[in-house]
Predict the structure.
Amino acid sequence: MMNKKKAYISYGINLILVLALFFFLRTLIVTGVLNRYQADLITLVCINVTMAVSLNLVTGLLGQLVLGHAGFMLVGAYAAALFTKNSSLPLQFSLPIGLVLAGILAAVFGVIIGIPALRLRGDYLAIITLGFGEIIRVIANNLKITGGAMGLGGIKSLTNRQHPAGMLPFVFFIAAVVIFAMFTFGRSRHGRAVIAIREDEIAAEAAGVNTTYYKLLAFVLAAFIAGVAGGLYAHHLGLIDPSKYDFNRSVEFLIMVVLGGMGSITGSILSASVLTILPELLRGFSNYRMLAYSVVLICVMLFRPTGLLGRAEFSLSALIRRITGKKQDAAKGGV
Amino acid sequence: MPLLETKKLGIAFGGLRALDDVCFSLESGEIMGLIGPNGAGKTTVFNLLTGVYPPTEGTVELEGKSIIGKKTAQITQSGIARTFQNIRLFKDASVIDNVKTAMNYQMKYSVLSGILHLPSYWKEEAQVEEQAEGLLDVCGLKQYAKATAKNLPYGQQRKLEIARALAANPKVLLLDEPAAGMNPTETHELLETIRTIREQFGVAVLLIEHDMSFVMGLCEHIVVLDYGKVIAEGLPEEIRTNPRVIAAYLGGE
């Protein structure tokens, strides 16, 4: 456990940095330095970071391979969109409520799928969750309320010509809160129990950890966050197309987690950002775009098999310590 | 009433009777040895005591209450903690976190207090930190508290397993070959540690071990298993001279 005072100082510094980053981005968008396309990209980065960090809870911390995370996102997308479409409240108020509903509904699905699925591990769990993700998508494709294969259109967004940064506070601060919650969760007794299950389930059970409960807890928490991210995504795009939440999408999130380093939150943030922006930067190469993207993935896996950050976390104070420490060492060496 | 008692305990894996009619009892604060040749069923006894398998017959009672049908985690919480023959630590976690994990069930703060770092989080974490440090101190691991578990030397890893089991606040401590792979100095240190643990925590210890001088020097009572059956039981001196035990180990006529 960290020293209480130190912890609060570090949280305070991070809060200031996060606020500064928010106002910086907002100013850039509002003043038109970043165009609409770039602003959309920032929104997308925030949503993908939220998704990657939530999947990291299950895959990185709990150590279970999940291939249906986009399914929870889809549940959340429909829940939030249907609520805001049918609500008479202005969107500023109906969106937060819709997002909470989205999270809760996705969490309910998490419980339903989690109870049978979490009896299995590894490859078996991966296949069950894959199946679940596809079932959700197929159901959404065939129900009337979800708009069938046509999807659900006409979802209002807070971003428009007058407010180019309308969605930014939502996507940005939700991402920030989720990241904070994942950090503190990892440092709590619940986080220790989840990590213990990843390390050795039999030993965790023998140490008195209720493994069923903690597996379900991590799974449902991740589903909740994915549901919220789905709600944001629906309101960002303005329509829901079920085919956008298929198996490939789930794999995309998994790649973000693996590439960043399983179990590293900052790694997930980094790789989710890079993997969202990289395909856009590569648009210049048109036909070779996906090829270059794949080559980057292969190279990272070859040279950093544990992912960009492994299980380590990027920390400002550690960086400062390292820089100043190195200087001290150099001074000693000089004498 | 004995602290832990098994009656007519038996388990069959298909046609193989791994244990048959195993009866023994452990008094509180006692150190008992469970010995026998390889494949005698010693670890299976531990697995039955901790709910890894349900026995096909017989009962296990802790303080007069049956623990049959309970899950491993529940049994640990009700007072039987174990270590493993092949070390099973949380390798990538720190030494102190390994110990704290076993204290998890004794902590109360909610998921939300954990995430928001509410006062109950700080209070309980501080308590657990202190307790965990105390345990590491007893087991001679205090200097390694912040180290990653997998980086500890082998002997220290074995001690960490004991520390983790103790952190679950057990009444009975089951040690599966605690001295395996240790040199004589380490074994002697371990013997002292186990004695200290018994004094300080008042736990009863049931241990499986092949090192006879270790068993004879430490245990007050010994149960000998062979082919899933108890072939002898008694004081160390009696076991040493028991012809059936000698025959089981060395082969008889």
Observations:
- Residues 136 and 142 of chain B are 5 Å apart (CA to CA).
- The domain at 4-79+170-250 of chain B is CATH 3.40.50.300 (Rossmann fold).
- The mean pLDDT of chain B is 92.
